[in-house]
Amino acid sequence: MKKANLFLVLSLITSISTVNAQTVGTAAPDFTVDLLEGGQFTLSEQAGKVVLLYFFGNGCPFCVSAGPQVESVYTNFKSNDNFAAVGLDTWGGSNETSVGGFKSASGVSFPLGMEAKEVETSFNITYDRLAVIDQQGVLQHKGNTAAGNDIATVTAVINDLFETTSARNDIASVSLATVFPNPAGEKIQFTLNSKDASSVSLYIYDLTGKEKKKETFDSMGSHSTLSYDISDLKAGAYIYKLKFNDQFQAGTLIIR
Q1: Which among 219, 175, 215 has a CA at the least distance from the CA of 199?
Q2: CATH classification of the domain holding 77
Q3: What DSSP designation does 35 have?
Q4: Could you tell me which of 233, 174, 168, 172 has the C-alpha nearest to residue 207?
Q5: Would residue 150 count as lying in a domain?
Q6: Of 169, 196, 223, which marks where a domain is finished?
Q7: Co-location of 129 and 29 in the same domain
Q8: Can you tell me the distance from the alpha carbon of 206 to that of 211, in angstroms, rounded to the nearest whole number?
Q9: Which one, of 9, 33, 149, lies nearest residue 86 by Cα?
Q10: Which helix (H) or strand (E) holds 240?
Q11: Quick one: 193 and 236 in the same domain?
């Protein structure tokens, strides 16, 4: 009986831990931290932005050495008004002296938050890790390797989030062509409604914003119809974009 009870307790603990574990694809837990140079950083106030989180320890030598690489990601995107980054110190003794020392040693210039141990716990992550949150506040990446080894992946995730947003914004665009059938099978066709289209480009993205196909058609006249093979794409939802000159048409494409 005691063994059975112990098994039940352990099962309950495991279940609770699984439920509370912060996983990719779920809403990121909100938090507020005091910043090294004054003010606060609140995650929920960053709605509409892609947010990079760097979990570090103020005395962690690996975190210090990864600083320049994380800084390179920040430098790459900081000119975009829809991007934000913050470092989160998860070690004990987190204060202006220790975090200030980390900033000097690592060379990072993005804001650094102090006393973020609770944030680390709520994200179910550890120090020397990176995480990315999308414009809707959903956790899209949670690193399971040292930050210095995660730079390429994080950069790709951020790029994809911005490309997806751009592609979705393109949906509210002019009507250049009639696209059919939709849902489509092995081929998609489009009839051009506009004049003066000597060259038309077709782009197809998946829902993460990754470009899956690209084709340019030359010598298209008004009301001409073209057929394009999409049999190599898996069934599902995609975003298509037709573009010529400075005009474009975009929308959702369903493949059976």
Answers
A1: 219
A2: 3.40.30.10
A3: B
A4: 168
A5: yes
A6: 169
A7: yes
A8: 7
A9: 33
A10: strand 236-244
A11: yes
Task: Label residue 53 exposed, middle or buried (CB < 10 Å: 0-12, 13-18, 19+).
Answer: buried
Q: What is the DSSP string of 90-159?
A: -SSS-SHHHHHHHHHHH---S-EES--HHHHHHTT--SSEEEEE-TTSBEEEE--S-GGGSHHHHHHHHH
pTM: 0.61
- Asked, for residue 4, whether it belongs to a domain, the answer is no
Pairwise CA distance, residues 252 & 183, whole Å: 10
Strand order through the sheet with 225-229: 177-180, 187-192, 225-229
Q: What is the pLDDT of residues 10-57, one digit of tens each?
A: 343 333 333 335 788 888 999 999 999 999 999 999 988 999 999 999
Q: Which of 33, 116, 103, 25 is nearest to 71 (CA)?
A: 103
On the CB side of 75, CA atoms within 13 Å amount to 10
Domain count, the chain: 2
Which of 145, 169, 193 is where one domain is finished? 169
pLDDT along the chain (256 residues), means of 10: 40 36 83 96 92 98 97 94 96 97 97 98 97 90 94 90 64 64 84 68 79 80 74 84 73 78
The domain of 218 spans 177-255
Question: Could you tell me if residue 125 is inside a domain?
Answer: yes
Residue 7: inside a domain, yes or no?
no
Separation in Å, CA 228 to CA 198, 210, 240, 249:
17, 19, 12, 16
